[in-house]
Design a protein that fits this description.
Length: about 110
C-alpha cells in the first residue's frame, strides 16, 4: 500500500495557506505603518516636552535639539528618526519628525 498525499490534498493545503496569507500580510504591513506613526508621535511629544522644560528654565524656546535634555529626547534616539527644524525662534518652534517615511509635526501648540 502506497502511503502519501494525493495531488488534490496538496492543492487544498496550498489554497488554504494562500487564503491565510492574503489576510495576514496586509494586516502586518498596516501594523508596521501604525508603529512608525506612533514612534514619530512619541518623538514629537518628547520634543514638545523638552522645549517646554527649556522655556521654563531659560524663558525662551531653543532652535535645535542639542540644547535640550537628552533624557527627555530618548524616543528620538533611533537610527531611523530624522528631525527637521522648520521654524525656531525664542517664542515659537516647528519640528518635523520622520520615521521611515511616516511624519509627525510638533509646534508650541502641540502635535499637528
Amino acid at each position: 500500500m502506497n502511503r502519501g498525499f494525493t495531488l488534490i490534498e496538496l492543492l487544498i493545503v496550498i489554497a488554504i495557506i494562500g487564503v491565510l496569507a492574503a489576510f495576514i500580510v496586509p494586516n502586518l504591513l498596516s501594523a508596521r505603518a501604525r508603529a512608525y506613526d506612533s514612534q514619530a508621535r512619541a518623538c514629537a511629544k518628547a520634543i514638545a516636552q523638552a522645549q517646554e522644560i527649556y522655556r521654563i528654565d531659560s524663558g525662551s524656546y531653543v532652535a535645535d535639539t542639542a540644547s535640550l535634555d537628552a533624557g527627555v529626547l530618548r524616543p528620538c534616539a533611533t537610527a531611523n528618526t530624522s528631525l527637521d527644524v522648520s521654524v525656531a525662534t525664542a517664542s515659537t518652534y516647528t519640528f518635523k519628525v520622520r520615521v521611515r517615511g511616516r511624519e509627525a509635526k510638533v509646534t508650541q501648540d502641540g502635535l499637528q
